[in-house]
Amino acid sequence: MSQSPVERACRISPHRLRHAARVLRAGGVVAHATEGVWGLACDAFDLDAVMRILALKRRDAARGLIVVAHSADALAPFVDPDAQAAWQRAHASWPGPTTWLLPARDTAPWWLTGAHDTIALRQTAHPETAALAATLGSALVSTSANVSGRPPVRSAWRARALFGDGIDCVAGGVCDRPGVPSTIRHALDDTTIRG
């Protein structure tokens, strides 16, 4: 089986990557390295898996979640088609460590937008996160591996110690910018929400 360029850039084994994707397809939660911290991932379209992550984090569903993908094409269906200028602003910065709040399409799942009319999207340049999404063939929820309000964990063993059996698989990987979470910006007015 040939690998895509995204999968070839990945620093974890193809076997582990395929295993993590199978776990995600089955509704599992995967701990993985992201740009700056360790994250918890699931298939963005799997409501039960998203609810598991929210329960693990003790996070209010109304806050919404970050959705990541290996390509902008995988994120475009979440965005209001009338928000072309905002989409172009976000698209021009990707791939990279910037998450953009974009006007959500009315069909975007409520469990991703929460109580907002925007959705948080990022086309990641992080090799393992991009490869995980590419291998799954879908966008991922990717949220920091922590209990809400507490610092995110910075290693696989800390994620496992904190969440135990709540994690179905540890994908592995290395953070590119340890301890520095992604920047969050609002695509309508280019304001920075989190620097």
Automatic annotation (TrEMBL):
Q: Where is the YrdC-like domain?
A: 14-195
For this chain, one GO molecular function annotation is: ATP binding
This protein's UniProt keywords: ATP-binding, Cytoplasm, Nucleotide-binding, Nucleotidyltransferase, Transferase, tRNA processing
Q: Name one GO cellular component term.
A: cytoplasm
Query: Is Nuclease given among the entry's keywords?
Result: no
Gene Ontology terms: biological process: regulation of translational fidelity; tRNA threonylcarbamoyladenosine modification
User: Which reactions does this protein catalyse?
Assistant: L-threonine + hydrogencarbonate + ATP = L-threonylcarbamoyladenylate + diphosphate + H2O
What's the main place this protein lives?
Answer: cytoplasm
Q: Which domain of life is it from?
A: Bacteria
PROSITE patterns per record: YRDC
EC id = 2.7.7.87
Q: Where in the cell is it found?
A: Cytoplasm
Q: What does this protein do?
A: Required for the formation of a threonylcarbamoyl group on adenosine at position 37 (t(6)A37) in tRNAs that read codons beginning with adenine. Catalyzes the conversion of L-threonine, HCO(3)(-)/CO(2) and ATP to give threonylcarbamoyl-AMP (TC-AMP) as the acyladenylate intermediate, with the release of diphosphate.
Enumerate the PANTHER family for this protein.
SUA5, THREONYLCARBAMOYL-AMP SYNTHASE
Q: Cite the HAMAP family for this sequence.
A: TsaC
Which family is this sequence assigned to? Belongs to the SUA5 family. TsaC subfamily.
Q: What is this protein called?
A: Threonylcarbamoyl-AMP synthase
Q: Which organism is it from?
A: Salinisphaera orenii MK-B5
